[in-house]
Amino acid sequence: MIYGLLHLSFWGYFITLMVMTQITIASVTVYLHRCQAHRALMLHPIISHFFRLWLWLTTGMNTKAWTAIHRKHHARCETEEDPHSPQVLGLNKVLWQGAELYRYEAINTETLERFGQGTPDDWLENKVYTPYGSTGILLMFMIDLVLFGVPGITLWALQMMWMPFFAAGIVNGVGHYWGYRNYECSDAARNISPLGWFIGGEELHNNHHAFGSSAKFSVKWWEFDLGWGYIKLFQWMGLAKIKKLSPRLQAVPDKKVIDSETIKAVIINRLNILSHYSKEVVLPVLKAEKKHAGEKGSELFHRARTLLVRELSLFNKLERSRLALLLRKKQTLRQVYYYRVKLQKIWNLTTANQKELIEALQEWCKSAENSRISALKEFSFRLKSYVPHIQIRASHGTQTD
């Protein structure tokens, strides 16, 4: 039969394609990415086995290879060892040849053994999914042909193209090249869109790189993560247990001393604190400086906002020289930038003990409060009030947000 067993209308085929591709996207973002690669949640064996089967039919990928490659991407991000960095390989290479880059890295036994630990190692994985990856794709072709007839060939082709382009190309490519950043993590990851529904929330790539082990990718109230919606549905059905979410800042209004709780909160929430520092200290000072300079000095402030808040390691030679000139000309901006760098150095003191960290932060706050910059003083007072915020109660598997 030319139209197969179902004989759908055009919109029937379109809806079918959207449903099938969304199942594939959910399989990747919920199972492969958040569950297997980052251990942000646990899935019931029923849903895990369904996702493994569906991925075998629609992508031919096995869990160990995908997990290992993604973990290596995080561990070696934006370096020569990153399997798919557009900062190293170029955007066009990753965007249009992302699937080839994946296949090349998937045969690297060192990558698989070092980064693929803890993935399924059962009979199905070893005897079916891994050795017969192309068989699953062929079986899906036959299923589409029987159910949808000749139009099923087009459906199958689009299914096969969906993840290589949108996941391997768009997320790995554009997600490290273009978009907005909520957090100044050390890599170039960006949020492609605040509405993460088309690729299951993977659009919120900067948020993910900032808090890799979080099951939820959205962090702002105006951001939407469809993958998180799937996870909440599975949790309601008893098929998922959330293990970890991104940290949140919590303040105790009357707390005015720096103690071990302050240090713990600052280290856990360092990217949140850095973001708050930029908004509450750097940008108000920048605004005042620009107003004072007027149109005559506007050239000096070209891209000043980005220069003052962006991770320094991501700058090229020209951007570094522009930043140096800006700081040399503007003493107040130089001062708040200096305090930002000094604060970062405190939470990077990995060899320091708790007492040394407390003393270093106390000294930072004392110096900030003795400055003539009101925004810096206010930030220091607020910094003392922070305590860790527990997102997940492991004993009960419940969450506080």
Give your account of this protein's structure.
This protein is mainly alpha-helical and 401 residues long. It is 60% helix and 4% strand. It has 18 helices and 8 strands. It has helices spanning 10-37, 45-58, 63-75, 86-89, 91-106, 109-115, 123-129, 133-148, 151-173, 205-210, 226-236, 260-268, 270-293, 304-309, 317-329, 331-347, 354-369, 374-384, and strands at 41-43, 195-196, 224-225, 240-242, 250-251, 386-387, 392-393, 398-399. The strands form 4 sheets. A two-stranded antiparallel ribbon has the order 1-4. A two-stranded parallel sheet has the order 2-3. Strands 5-6 form a two-stranded antiparallel sheet. A hairpin with a 4-residue loop joins strand 7 and strand 8 (398-399). Helix 1 packs across helix 3 (63-75) and helix 17 (354-369) packs antiparallel against helix 18 (374-384). The longest helix is centred in the first third of the chain and has 28 residues, at 10-37. Mean pLDDT is 92; it is low at 392-401.
Can you lay out the helices and strands and say which pair or pack?
Blueprint (H helix, E strand, L loop, with lengths): L9 H28 L3 E3 L1 H14 L4 H13 L10 H4 L1 H16 L2 H7 L7 H7 L3 H16 L2 H23 L21 E2 L8 H6 L13 E2 H11 L3 E3 L7 E2 L8 H9 L1 H24 L10 H6 L7 H13 L1 H17 L6 H16 L4 H11 L1 E2 L4 E2 L4 E2 L2
Parallel strand pairs: 2-3
Antiparallel strand pairs: 1-4, 5-6, 7-8
Helix pairs in contact: 1-2, 1-3, 1-9, 2-8, 3-6, 5-9, 8-9, 13-16, 13-18, 15-16, 16-17, 17-18
